[in-house]
Amino acid sequence: MRRPDRLFLLSLLGIAVGLTGGLVAEFLLETIAYINNAAFFGTISGNYMTPDASHVHGWVVLIPALGGLAVGLLIHYFSPEIKGDGIPEAMSVVLTRGSMVQPRVGFFKPLSAAITVGSGGPFGAEGPIIQTGGALGSILSQFLTLAPSERRTLLACGAAAGLAGVFKTPFAGVMMAVELLVFEFRARSFIPIALASACGTLVAMAFRGTGAVFPVTAGFTPRAAELPLWIGLGVGCAGLAWVMTRALYSCEALFEHIEQRWHIWFPLIPAAGGLAVGGIGWFYPQVFGMGYNVIADLLANPHSAGQLVGVGMAKLAAFAVALGSGSSGGTFAPALMIGGSLGAAFGHLARALLPAASAPGLYGLVATAALFGAIYRATPTAILFMLEVTGDIHALFPLFLVSIVADLTIHYLTDTTINTERLVKRGIHVPEAYSADPMRRFRVGEVMTTNVSTLPAEAGLAAMLAAAAAHDAVPVMDAGGRVSGMLHRGDLLQAPRDAKAGEVARKQFPVAYADESLHEAALRLLEGGEGHCAVLERGTGALAGLLTPYDLLKAKQWENRQETPQPGPLAFFGQRKGGPGVSGEAGGQPH
Predict the structure, then answer these.
(1) What gap in Å lies between CA 328 and CA 121, rounded to an integer?
(2) Predicted model pTM
(3) How far apart are CA 19 and CA 25, in angstroms?
(4) H helices of 426-475, where?
(5) CA-to-CA distance for 130 and 136, rounded, in angstroms?
(6) Which CATH superfamily is domain 3-208 in?
(7) How do residues 74-97 score in pLDDT, each as one tens digit?
(8) What topology does CATH give the domain 438-556?
(9) Can you name the residues that pair with 455 across neighbouring β-strands?
(10) Which span out of 180-189, 405-414, 424-433, 506-515 was modeled with the highest average pLDDT?
C-alpha cells in the first residue's frame, strides 16, 4: 500500500479511536460523579458536586482510605499496570513494548481512576484517561497488520482524544501526544492524532457544551516594571516543579520501604495513603477529588494569600502521599491547583511590591501553565492548554514568558521529569526531543568512499591476495567495465591457486545508487548481510564508489558536529591557541 493510502487508513482509524476515546472520557467523568456524589453526599446523581461543599464529618476522613483499599485490591489481584499516574506507563509501552498494551488495562485503569477520584483522591481524570485512550488505540492496532510506528500513532491518538475529551483542548491534545508519546513531528503521525483529538473534543462539546473549562478574563496591561516579577514567577514555578517531583518520589520511596521492611499486604498501602489524604481534607476539603471547580474559582475570584498558600500546600502534600502510596490518578489536576493557588499567592506579593501589578488571578493562571510545562518538560503543550481551557488570549505574553523562563530554569535543577524519572530508574532511555534522522538527510553519494580499488575478472590469486591485504572487499569488474561481483577477504581462504577473481567473487551482492537516501541504502546493506555495498550511477550502472559501515557513521558524525561549539570567523571568546579544532563547518556535509 502506498504511503498516502497508509496515511488515509491511519486517519480513518484515528477518527474511530478519537470518537471512542471521547466517549470513554465522558463515561469516566460520569462514573466519577456518581461515585463522588454517593460517597460524599449520599445521592445518586451524575451531576458532579465538589466534595468541599459537603459537610465535613468524621467519616469523610475514611472515604479516601476505602477508595485506596479498593484500588489496591485491583492492582494487587488484577492489573499491576494501572498503578500510578498513567502517562509514564503509556510512555513505557511506547518505548519498550512496541506500543502493545495489555487489553485488561483498558478496563481496569478507568475503573481504578473512577474509584480513586470519586472517593476523594486528590487527582484528575486526565492521566488515567490518557492511558486508557492509549490502550484503546493500541488494542485496535493489535487486530490489524500495522508497522510499530503506526501502532504508536494509534496509541497516541487515543491519548490525545482522552485529554481533549476531558478538557476540550484539541491543540493541547495533539501537542501532548507529540511531546510525550510519539517523539516526532511528521505528517504520518500528526494528521491522525489531530483528527483523533478533534473528535475527542467534539464528543466533549456534545455532552458539556462549547464553553471553556476554566473561563477566566484576567486582563493584562504590559508594564516594564512588572517584568522582573514575571521572571521571578518563572524561576519560582521551576522550583515548585522540582519540589513537587521530589515530594512524590520521596513518598513513593518511603511507602516502598515500609512495605518491604514490614511485609505489609500491598492493598493496605494505598489505603494508608488515602487515610492521610482524608486527614488533610479535614482541614482543607478543597484537596478532595478532581478540583476543577476549585481551580476555576481560584483563577476567577479573589482569595486571601493565606488561604491560597494553605490550599496549594495541602494539595501538594495530598497528591504526593496519595500517588506515592501507589494509588491511581492523574497529575494534571494537582499541578493545576498547586500552580493556580501558589501563583495567585505570588500575585498578592507582587501587588505588595508593585501596587499597579496585574491581578493575582492572572499570576495564578500563568503559574499554572508554567508549572505544568516545567513538571512535564512540555512547555508548548502547557501554553496551548491554558489558552484553550481559559479562553483568555490576552494572557498570551506573560503566559509565554513565564513558561519559557520556568522551562529554562528546570533544566538546571533536574535532568528528568515527573514522568521520566521512574522510567530512567528502570533503565529505559527516553528521547529528549523529536528531530530529523540524519540518515535520511544525506544521499549515498555524499558519504560513500570514492577512492576504490578494483580487480579485473581475469586477475589471478597473487593480485587478489594483494588487494585483500589492503581492503576487506574489492569490486570485480568485467570486460565492459561493469561490476560483476564482490571479492571479500574471507573468500580467498579456500580459493585454488589457479582461480580467477571473476570465479571467486560473490555474484549476489547489495547495490546502492549515489542519488538515493542513506537510510534506504543502509537497510539494503543490513538485509543483505554484507559489510560493503557497491554504489552505482543510476542509468549508466558505472561504479561510483563503495558504501561501508564507517561511511554510515559519517551521518552520525555530522549530527554530533551540530552540537559541538565552534568559534565563528569573528569570535573572540572560547578559542584556545593551538588547541584542537573541529573539522568541518556546522551545517556542512560529512566527510
Answers:
(1) 9
(2) 0.80
(3) 10
(4) 438-441, 444-447, 461-470
(5) 10
(6) Clc chloride channel (1.10.3080.10)
(7) 999 998 878 877 677 778 887 777
(8) CBS-domain (3.10.580)
(9) 476
(10) 405-414
Angle between helices 227-262 and 268-283 (to 10 degrees): 140
Question: What's the CA gap between 233 and 315, in Å, rounded?
Answer: 19
Report the distance separating Cα 67 and Cα 57, nearest Å.
17
Question: What does the alpha-carbon distance between residue 185 and residue 313 come to, in Å, rounded to a whole number?
Answer: 37
Let me know if 161 is exposed, middle or buried by CB neighbors in 10 A (0-12, 13-18, 19+): buried
For residues 3-31, average pLDDT: 91
CA distance 86 to 525: 40
Neighbours of 180 (CB within 10 A): 24
Domain boundaries, the chain: 3-208, 224-425, 438-556
For 226, other C-beta atoms within 10 Å of its C-beta total 18
Which residue(s) pair with 477 in the sheet? 456, 483
The grid coordinates listed for 83 are 498503578
Task: Report which residue type is found at 51.
Answer: P
Are 3-208 and 438-556 equal in CATH topology? no
pLDDT digits (tens, 9 = 90+) for 254-285: 999 999 999 999 999 999 999 999 999 999 99
Quick one: which of 269, 272, 278, 213 has its CA closest to 40?
Answer: 278
Q: Is 130 exposed, middle or buried (0-12, 13-18, 19+ CB in 10 A)?
A: buried
Q: Which is it for strands 533-536 and 511-513: parallel, antiparallel or unpaired? A: parallel
What is the rounded radius of gyration, in angstroms, for the C-alpha atoms of the chain?
A: 30
Furthest CA-CA distance within the chain = 101
* d(C-alpha 9, C-alpha 252), whole Å: 42
**Closest of 111, 133, 102, 105 to residue 25, by C-alpha:** 133
User: What's the fold here for domain 224-425?
Assistant: Clc chloride channel (1.10.3080)
- Number of alpha helices (DSSP H) and beta strands (DSSP E) in the chain: 23, 6
Q: Which helix (H) or strand (E) holds 170?
A: helix 170-177
For residue 343, give the nearest of 318, 317, 320, 369 by alpha carbon: 369
